[in-house]
């Protein structure tokens, strides 16, 4: 077996002989600036994640079926239907979720000839 086959074997040999390993241990940071940078990046990532989550749920929770119905044509998608009929201030994903709930769809798959009720917000 090779004497230095892994990082662990080199590290253990140097420590066992009482020598200095030549570097910092895993628990030491190289500087406070790097710690602050890591914290800043973590905060930014969390902020972006929560901003996206709030955008998804930005629509109103009052969900009523309007009298408007849409017949699905060949090539239609829920995204396209939602883009045409949603209010200007609403996120398209929220409107699609409303269409799915009102019509009792189990997925976003629709077929030509389906009749969909549109939500009213």
UniProtKB/TrEMBL annotation:
It comes from Paenibacillus terreus. SUPFAM superfamilies: LysM domain. This is LysM peptidoglycan-binding domain-containing protein. The chain crosses the membrane at residues 39-59. It holds the Pfam family LysM. The lineage of its organism: Bacteria, Bacillati, Bacillota, Bacilli, Bacillales. Residues 69-119 form the LysM domain. SMART domains: LysM. It comes from the Bacteria. Keywords: Membrane, Transmembrane, Transmembrane helix. Signal peptide: none annotated.
